[in-house]
Amino acid sequence: MKIGQVLKRLREEQGLSQSQVARLLGVDRAYINLLEKDRRGPSADTVRRLAEIFNVSPQVFYERSERALPSRSFNQIWEELEVLRPVAIPIVAEGSAGDGMEPVDYAYWARPKVAGKNIVGIQVSGDCLEPELSHGDVVFVDMDIAPEDGDLVLCTVDGKVAIKRYREVNGERWLENKFGRVEIESEADIKGVVIEKNIKVRRRKNLVLNWQI
After folding, report:
1. Is residue 119 within 8 Å of residue 143, measured between CB atoms?
2. CB under 8 Å, gap of 24 or more: what pairs does 31-35 form?
3. What residue segments make up the domains of the chain, in order of their start?
4. Which residues face 159 on adjacent strands?
């Protein structure tokens, strides 16, 4: 069975139109039509992405298999691909002023389903949280979740963003690092919780971060 025949069989088994597969793949419907007629050979990357859409191994496209495959709706596939598709997260330097900050870098991240939609990256400055975090490390912060005792959090101290340890013991709350303790003056001081550490970044110019803290 040729690759085009495998693609058509997978598409029909899952009840998808050529237009729907094209949308999921990010191409024109005509391209899917050419693939199914074996008038165009897909690249290895296209085969990998098609395998993600149909929830199969890429090897399926190269095998003469007639086995039935589990069916999923278009919306289910779209939701899963939205999670798999990396998003660009701007990275802001710790110690920046709170409003209209300009990113110093950015990182691509395939956001897991458990993460919120409001994610920001912070580049750590200094050694106040060593050995867990060192100068230059990058962390991702989810600004949609509330902190629990022991979490690393994004906060504002004297109008500047910082990463500190959140503590809550016997009804008392504070922020700390190895140099000391900072009292929490209001709920607005805490912006989010660190959910990912030691992120690799790629440099990119002319990015502007428009969120407000």
Report:
1. yes
2. 32/7, 35/3, 35/4, 35/7
3. 3-84, 87-196
4. none
- For residue 29, the model assigns a pLDDT of 87
Inform me whether the pLDDT recorded for 205 exceeds 50.
Answer: no
164 SS3 class: strand
Cα 129 from Cα 212, distance rounded (Å): 25
- What tokens appear for 32 in the block? 């899917």
Tell me the two tokens of residue 84.
């798999």
pTM over the 0.70 mark: no
Q: Are 213 and 191 spatial neighbours (Cβ–Cβ below 8 Å)?
A: yes
Q: pLDDT confidence of 72, banded at 50, 70, 90? A: low
Give the residue carrying structure tokens 């870098």: 105
Identify the CATH homologous superfamily for domain 3-84: lambda repressor-like DNA-binding domains (1.10.260.40)
Domain 87-196 bears CATH identifier 2.10.109.10 = yes
**Tokens representing residue 137 in the block:** 């490390």
Q: What is the pLDDT of residues 3-45, one digit of tens each?
A: 898 999 999 988 899 989 988 888 888 889 889 988 888 888 8
